[in-house]
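Person: Please comment on this record:
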Amino acid sequence: MPEAIGIKSVRTADISDDLPSADDMNDTFKSEVATLRAEIATIREKLAEKSGEAYENVSRRASNAAHYVQDEAVSAAGAIREHPAAATTLFTLIGAIGFGIGYLVASTTAEQKQAWYRRYY
């Protein structure tokens, strides 16, 4: 009945006709590997170009930031030289505020010490 419909029997099917030869498979594999190597080479070149551009951009921006910080430090040093009493007052005030904040944080987080017998009532 399967022959009447056009289906080959499993016993009579010739599998070797459907498979490609080993040489064809080897050639196909070699061509795919060569294509992949070429793609990897182009990706590597593009990545090298992009990383070079990124390094130049980062270097330029870091240089600009360093110059800006240096200019501001010179400006602050000049202001301190011109007004030493005001600078001393400012740094003392900043230190006192920092001490006060630290004291408040430490006092709120510290455990309150109680006598051992007061724990039970």
Remarks:
- The radius of gyration is 40 Å.
